[in-house]
Amino acid sequence: MPGNTVDGTTARRRIKLSYLDRQFAEVEPYLADIRALVSRGDFTLGEAVRTFEERFAALCGVPHAIGVNSGTDALFLTLRALEIGPGDEVVTSPNTFVATVGAIVQAGARPVFADINASYTIDPDQMEAAITPRTRAVLPVHWAGCPADLAAISDIAQRRGAALVEDAAQAVLASVDGRHVGGWGEAAGFSLHPLKNLNVWGDGGVIVTRSRALDARLRLLRNHGLQGRDEVAVFGYNSRLDSLQALVASRLLGEVEAITARRIENAARLDAGLAPLVGRITLPPRRPNVRQVFHLYIVLAQDRDALLAHLRERGVDAKVHYPVPLHLQPAARVLGYRAGDFPVYEAYCRSALTLPVHQHLSAQELDDIIGLVRDFYGA
Ligand SMILES: Cc1ncc(COP(=O)(O)O)c(C=O)c1O
After folding, report:
1. For helices 243-253 and 256-274, angle between their N-to-C axes, nearest 10 degrees
2. pLDDT value at position 11?
3. Nearest ligand 1 atom, CA 72
4. How far is the CA of 189 from the centre of ligand 1 (A)?
């Protein structure tokens, strides 16, 4: 649908989910950092990665942060460092990006799903019911930037003798009861993927932990098991955070609070504009003790597919995260789940719709989105 431009001509509206062109329109400061790095030739781990790790740990309020290749590796290496593998089970949420489950499978363990609750995150009671004598870890996912019920989950994990590993890929700066996600259990994995709230120019990830022993083990595993140049302590992987990416991440660490505040503000504006549609739309869940950081703004919508088409035809980059339940994907057949096993999650997959909420949206763009959704429902 055309919209008016300042000179009176019409242009197609395009409200994108990606903001990278806007975020990096002013690229010079990043390039200056990179030029300095190139002049030092400090490409492997080194100062850039160390500085980022120290600052990220401080941001999360934990003593240790380990930069790795990706958010997926953050989870995989954590499971390996905890010596979780064949014969073990890890209870997790099916409401996630496939990487969570891929990391468990590639570590050699069996993923066991538990249904979600109204906050789109793992339901603690269902999680506890899925624990067996083979369970070595529980792995809640802070979906869309909304923390799982960490107080209940960490209590269950401790009582049942399971490690708590948080998938915080989408949740930098989210907190529960004023405590940052990532510090509630043994360790947590964050992603620095280009479309995460704290992002880099390719792949990157970071693990946080309170455990000095786990920190030491993870540093070995991410760098070939090398203890210094000439001693191989264990056989490991090459999963170092790239030094160039560490520079980008460090620069953006100075902005991540503002980015988060803006996303929370934008979510509140969408909430207010869409509130009259409640009944046809379910707004994102709110819990008073929780800071959610709106990596994604997800509503449950009546006639979701028609609303999706309506928005896309009118230039709004709405999306579905994700339409096919993960336990029903071809790759998951070996796990033996069936349609109907996770009714809350399956209903979510049928009605979830993601609307743009990123920090570069203008008030007008947010109001345009709200207007189009209202038009769709004839409100
Ligand atoms: C919930 C969740 N877990 C894990 C990952 C994996 O992160 P990465 O893409 O950095 O490997 C992602 C993001 O892609 C994610 O959204």
Report:
1. 60
2. 54
3. 11
4. 9
Q: What residues have CB less than 8 Å from 83, skipping those under 6 apart? A: none
Residues at CB less than 6 angstroms from ligand 1? 70-72, 96-97, 99-100, 141, 167, 169-170, 191, 193, 203, 205
Task: Report if residue 13 sits inside a domain.
Answer: no
Name the residue type at position 248: V
- Average pLDDT per block of 10 residues along the chain, 379 residues long: 42 84 95 96 95 98 98 98 98 98 98 97 98 98 98 98 98 97 98 97 98 98 96 98 98 97 98 97 95 98 98 97 98 98 98 98 97 96
Token look-up 């090398």 returns 226
Q: In the structure encoding, which two tokens stand for residue 90, read together?
A: 């890890």
- The residue with tokens 């160039």 is 244
User: Which residue matches tokens 């019911």?
Assistant: 129
Write down the pLDDT at residue 8: 40
> How many Cα atoms occupy the beta-carbon half-sphere of 332 within 13 Å?
19
Indicate whether 364 belongs to any domain. Answer: yes
- What is the CATH number for 293? 3.90.1150.10
CB 276 within 8 A of CB 379: yes
- 190 plus 275 within the same structural domain: no
Query: Do residues 339 and 347 touch, judged by C-beta distance below 8 A?
Result: no
Closest CA to 165 of 239, 251, 78, 80: 78
